Amino acid sequence: MKKNYKNIIQESLSKKKADYKEIRIEETVSTRINYNGKTRENVSINSHFGGSARSMSNGGWGFTSFNEIEQAPTKMNESIELANFSKNPSFKIHQNSPKKITLPAEVKKDPRSIKLSEKISLLDHYKDLLLKDKKFKAVKLFTEIQKEK
């Protein structure tokens, strides 16, 4: 089921009052290839999703994090409660009109479009170049290619 991130974030930001609120989310998929000396030790593909809620209320800041988008409304409320515990009435945030912008990701070459065998071949080549030099007795080499959504 595709979750509607935008609606969940808007709901999270509209519930409870605070001087400042923000929610950030990050979703990554990474390919990791590890070498130790001449030996390829590991090839893995991993995915991660997470986010954070930050707020400022009565001069105090609150921060929480989450691993599922459905937790965003609860975590925003918790960040506001935390901010209220660290009140600092002498600190005021400048009030202005919020600007809402959406920036599209610009990817010159999507790493997901490169075959895993090509990635391994390229790193094998780099490993061999390094090991040709007699100054190197062993090489620890890895790459991690991340695609953020």
What's the short version?
The protein has 149 residues and is an alpha+beta fold.
CATH class: Alpha Beta
Averaged pLDDT: 85
What Rg do the Cα atoms give?
A: 22 Å
Task: Give me the secondary-structure category.
Answer: alpha+beta
What can be said about the biggest beta sheet? 4 strands, antiparallel
Low-confidence stretches: none
Task: Summarize the structure in words.
The chain has a single domain, classed as PmbA/TldD superfamily (PmbA/TldD fold). The chain is 28% helix and 35% strand. It contains three helices and four strands, in the order αβββααβ. It has a four-stranded antiparallel beta sheet.
Could you give the topology of this structure?
Layout: H1 5-14, E1 20-36, E2 39-57, E3 60-66, H2 72-85, H3 116-132, E4 140-148
Helix pairs in contact: 1-2
Looking at this protein, list some descriptive labels.
about 150 residues, alpha+beta, PmbA/TldD fold, four-stranded antiparallel sheet, 3 helices, about 30% helix, about 35% strand
